[in-house]
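# nightly structure sweep
# worker-07 picked up a monomer target from the shared queue
# config: single-sequence mode, recycle default, output format = C-alpha cells
# input follows
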Amino acid sequence: MIVRQFISWIRHASAGERAEATRALARAWLISDLSLDDRAAAEGALLLMLDDVSPLVRQAMAQVFSQSARAPAAIVRALAADQPSVALPVLEFSPLLIDADLVDLVATGEDAVQCAVARRVRLPASVCAAIAEVGCAAAALELIENPHAELAPFSWDRIVERHGHLAAIRESMLVLDGLPGATRLALVAKLSDTLQQFVVARGWLSADRAARTTADAVDRSTVTVAAQSRGDDMRGLMQHLRATGQLTAGLILRALLSGNLELFEVALAELSGLPLTRVGALLHDRGGAGINALLARAGLPETTHAAFRAAVEAIHEIGFVGSDAGAVRLRRLMVERVLTRCETGADAAAPLLILLRRFATESAREEATAFCDDMIAEHFVSRLELMAA
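# output follows
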C-alpha cells in the first residue's frame, strides 16, 4: 500500500521531494523488516526511479546503496553505468561490482569514472592493469597513491611509458619503497629525456653536449639505483638495462670504479649467460686468465679489458663497499690507479682514456664537495657545542 502511494505521489512531487522520498525508500529496503511482497514492491519502485529525469533522485539512491553488500544488484549496476555525478560513490565503494564490471567501466568511462575506480580499497591486479593501460594520468596518480592497489611489475612499467613525462607521476612513484629498480630507472630516463629536450630548446646546450650530459646523469642514477637493489630486483634491473641497450662497458666500468662489485658480477652474468656463482669464482681468480675469458664471453670490448682487470685488482686491495651510500660515487683512488695503468699501457684506446679522465675529474670534484660538506658540518657542530657551554 505504501509503495503504491509512493508511485502515485511522485508524479506530482518536485525533484528535491522525489529525491528525499527515494532516499527514505532505499533506506527502508536496506534496514526495515519488510515482508517479501513489500520488499519486491519497493525494489520495483526503486527500479522505476532509475528512469527519473532528475539526477538528484539517482544520486540519493547511489548514496544509500554505495557501500552496502545487501543492496539490489541490478540497481547498483545501473547506477554504476549512470553519469559520473551519480555513479562515483558506487564506483568507489560498492562491494557488488565484480572485477569484470570494473575493467569494463575503466575501458569505457571518462576520467572521473577511472579515478573513482582507482581509489577503491580492494583493487586487484586485473583492474590495476586496465587503469595502467587505458587510464588517464589522474587515474594513474590515484592508483599509485592507493596503498591497496595490487600493481604487477608490467603495470608499473606501462604507467611510466604512458605518463612518466609528468612530474606528479614521477614524484609519487619515486618515493615508494618497493618500486622495482628497473621501473625506477625508467622514470629517471623519462626525466632525463625531458630535461634534455628543455635545455636544447632553450639553447643552453648543444644537442650533442646535452646528450652526453644526460647519458652521464643516467649512468650515475643507474649506479645509485643498483646500489639499493638486491636479488631478483638486481637481476631484473640488469635485464632491463640489457634490453634497452644501456648495459654498456662504460656503465659497468663506472659501477666497478664506484666499488660496486655486486652490480659488476650480475651484469657479467647477464651478458655472459653464466651462473652468478661461476662469475664470482672467475673474478676472484688472481691469475687473470679467468677474468679475460669472462670479459670476452660477456662481449665487452677488448680495449677495455685492461681497465677492468686493473679495477678488479684495485677493489681487492682497497676493499669492498660497506654501504649503499658508498657504492654510488666514483672512488678517486681506484679511478686514478686504473687511469695510470691504462695511460702507461701500450694498447690503451683513446675513447677509454677519455672516459677514465672524465671519471677522474668527476671523482675529484665529488671528493672535494664531500670534504667541504664535512668541514661545514664540523664547524656547525663546534659552534653548537660552544653555545651550549
